[in-house]
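Our preliminary data section would be incomplete without showing what the modeling component actually yields. Below, a chain of 77 amino acids is followed by its predicted structure, encoded as tokens that our downstream tools consume directly.
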Amino acid sequence: MARDFSDTPHLEDLHAELERTLINEYLRARGFDPAALRDRHDAEAHLVLVEAATYAAARLTEVESRAKYVHDIHSRG
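Predicted structure:
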């Protein structure tokens, strides 16, 4: 009997959710309301969103690197 994974989120969805969370965390830490900032179309808003996306990308890379390291350690056993 095949196992049903239809209610399990895809890895891409989990990464996207984590990325959104990290971006929002970055924005709030700098005193911005994420929804309000996304509604703005000025140069400052664009710059802050680019910075937030860069921060999120770096953190995701860190998370993936740590996960790979843990996987490699457990695979050696």
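The first helix runs from residue 11 to 29. The chain has one domain: 13-76. Preliminary results of this kind motivate Aim 1 of the renewal.
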